[in-house]
Specification:
Two copies of one chain form a homodimer.
Chain A lengths: L4 E2 L2 E2 L8 E7 L1 H4 L6 H12 L3 E8 L3 H12 L4 E5 L10 H9 L3 E3 L1 H14 L12 E3 L3 E3 L7 E5 L7 E5 L3 H20 L3 E9 L4 H8 L9 E7 L4 E9 L2 H19 L3 E4 L4 H12 L3 E5 L5 H7 L8 E7 L2 H6 L5 H7 L4 H15 L3 E7 L13 E7 L5 E7 L4 H20 L8
Parallel strand pairs in A: 3-4, 3-5, 5-10, 15-16, 15-17
Antiparallel strand pairs in A: 1-2, 6-7, 8-9, 9-10, 11-13, 11-14, 12-13, 17-18, 18-19
Chain lengths: ~425, ~425
């Protein structure tokens, strides 16, 4: 897709956004042996450079399919970033395919051959004859000298498309390095000044459609904002991508929007950008110099493990108890066996006592207790998903909450854990937001 | 791309392989916010069902671009698996796009609306009006009832392409579940008489390239077998897909291969097919009528939580302790504080005492203790990845193992837990395989 050319220099209409595609080459992607993380990385970088990525396309190491895909994309975008197919083996077809699409021959570059040989010497590897194939690039292409053993190159296809094609090795670190050294500047020139920033608002305890129905009206008519929602087991992410003339302006424009979203969702917001629930809880604890411990039945240790996966957790996580059986609730947490039998293992009373025991037995400031029916079987005739979570406060008071949590066993465990951690988060916010 | 139809029944040339594409829908993919793991998973499953996946294509939530991509793929493949765009929000376009491509209207399904409403009632969530949009599917399509809140559907496009299009929600667990319940059988029929079976051998404690170097030579010249390796934090999967005339023959042909692979990898094999490490440990415990408890430092409860995620864990998992701080090691597990101070929190002696405490304090038959330096900081000058795991036997004896485990914080936690669970597995195998 042409940007227009004058004397071979590619230009574009000033207000037309540059559109790009990532073309990933390699049969292993289509066999399901490998996930295409290059496409994700390149897309994020291009977006930060003000380019709209409209397609990811993956093709096998089959020349006809490669050419077919290249032709389709060339009619639709201004820039194609090709990843992979630059190795030395017979199934590495990127050089041939792009040369054929451009109608030019391959040309041997002595200087690239010397660089490749040098890299083998430096690594004390034997260079196979076939590695010299990597010194071939399409006539007229700009060579990108190798950081591994594969050089890349950039070439503008002939009219009518005049699409710029950039070919990079598929090995992720080589792709990233060559992109940074050679492609980023090319793209900046193509794209002009516009930059974007993505802000993330993390939400717990509400469904995606509920969140969408609150947020979508806020952003109506905002052409400079791309809104997306990402649903995970333990949270919903509201993602706002704001574009502006430069990165500073984009960030500045994003801030009031983030504040508007946070205000609209109230206490369901657990954090912004890198702040996920576990991080926020640990940071709030650390700010207060307080600690937490858990006594978990249904989650089986997952609440403590989620905190423990955060670097630096040991400053605020004392530990806890996994009290999976009635015997453990008695033996480890010291619960009254008669009470457990009378109230049921999944009950308000037992959950309350677990939170209290977590706090008292460890000397932690806060204690979390959780019980629930994660499924697939019912417990004491309680339906699957019936859950309780309790929080023992530093003053010894204990509050208990309960509801039925939807999902399969894994989701019930994740959501129950999030509910318990979120309760602690809300109580740690001294100037507490609304309490629902 | 037509397979040919007779009276609306799709057929194909007997020797022509079925070609498929995965079309992933969602602006977040093109923004670089999310990596498309669905395409990988669907490709692996399709390959195991005898289908050649030739393209992955990702599109934004833009109707014209979606239709353009759908048309291009429909001319090239027999089957398109669409992932995403089935949610309730305005940017969910998959229903509209496929209906428009097929030239049919959208139709409201009362039974789907009722199922969606029921799923909200079960979760005690408020259903937004817009969720009813999810009960619309193209006229003539086969509905796939929801497992989350989004139904999927299958529809054959009109001639000349007659391409089968299958639409599934983008949430990975929903996509996998609906694929298994509805799509796999459809694909088996499309792909013809040859049946395939995929056998999985789960391996712990070895690297992927080591496993590959042992297994690849075993399968040379076997055209009826597709071999792939899948590396997870906690295990390597060796996947053998065997094709034959019918499922019975495929399974029969797979069995000696599985046995050969298991023999070649020896005690590194933890299970076959659905038997992952946690399942095997729990089953072996149940067969013996024995129980286990844990005392975890570095893993923070993750070992117990991994067992608890398996349905029926309560028969064999008593519970345990999370002893993250020195105070918890003393207070909860009763370790000698002087010993902890002298030996270090991450040490053979402390790990030994944790395993013993796990067993003795809970009355479980077996006790697991784990300590380690998960990073990013060192502990007591021990390098990151230094780990110990110990097992207290029913007779009271305790064995301790240690080594440096590679990876980032999350990987160290996962691999340390696997090492501890694998040790228990080996000891539960009475006629134990070799003990390395």
């Amino acid at each position: 897709m042409t940007l227009g050319t004058i004397d071979g220099i590619v230009i574009r209409e000033p207000d037309e956004p540059v559109r790009a595609a990532v073309l990933s080459v390699g049969s292993e992607l289509l066999l399901g042996d490998l996930t295409d993380t290059n496409a994700t990385w390149v897309s994020l970088r291009l977006r930060e450079l003000g380019v709209e990525v409209v397609h990811h396309l993956a093709v096998r190491d089959v020349l006809a399919e490669f050419l077919d895909a290249l032709a389709w994309l060339a009619e639709r975008v201004h820039l194609i970033v090709v990843g992979g197919g630059l190795g030395p083996t017979v199934d590495d077809l990127t050089r041939e395919a792009i040369a054929e699409a451009a109608g030019v021959p391959l040309e041997h570059h002595d200087d690239l051959a010397e660089m490749i040989a040098e890299r083998f010497r430096a690594g004390r590897f034997e260079m196979a004859r076939q590695n010299l194939k990597q010194a071939l690039i399409p006539k007229g292409a700009t060579p990108y000298p190798p950081v591994g053993t594969a050089p890349g190159f950039g070439l503008t296809l002939p009219e009518p498309t005049a699409t710029r094609v950039v070919a990079l090795p598929g090995v992720p670190w080589e792709l990233k390095e060559l992109f940074g050294r050679f492609v980023a500047d090319e793209v900046r020139q193509l794209a002009g000044a516009r930059a974007t920033v993505t802000r993330i608002v993390h939400v717990v305890g509400r469904g995606e459609s509920n969140v969408a129905s609150v947020i979508e009206p806020l952003l109506e008519g905002r052409d400079d904002v791309v809104l997306s929602f990402l649903a995970r087991s333990s949270e919903i992410q509201v993602r706002l991508t704001v574009s502006a003339e430069d990165p500073h302006a984009a960030r500045a424009a994003s801030q009031p929007l983030v504040e508007e979203v946070v205000a609209a969702l109230g206490s369901a917001v657990v954090g912004v950008d890198d702040d996920v629930l576990e991080d926020v809880v640990l940071r709030l604890l650390q700010e207060r110099g307080q600690t937490v411990a858990t006594a978990e039945s249904a989650t089986g240790g997952d609440v403590a493990a989620r905190l423990a996966r955060v670097a630096g957790a040991s400053a605020s996580l004392v530990g806890g108890m996994v009290v999976y059986t009635a015997a453990a609730k008695d033996g480890l947490a010291g619960l009254d066996a008669a009470l457990v039998a009378a109230e049921g293992e999944v009950s308000e009373a037992v959950t309350r006592d677990l939170a209290r025991a977590a706090r008292e037995r460890t000397g932690a400031d806060w204690g979390i207790g959780v019980t629930g029916v994660a499924g697939p079987s019912m417990v004491d005739d309680l339906p699957i998903g019936s859950c309780f979570w309790a929080l023992a406060h530093p003053n010894g008071e204990v509050e208990v909450h309960g509801r039925r949590i939807p999902g399969d066993r894994g989701q019930v465990i994740a959501r129950l854990g999030s509910a318990a951690l979120d309760l602690l988060r809300r109580r740690l916010l001294v100037d507490g937001v609304d309490d629902d």
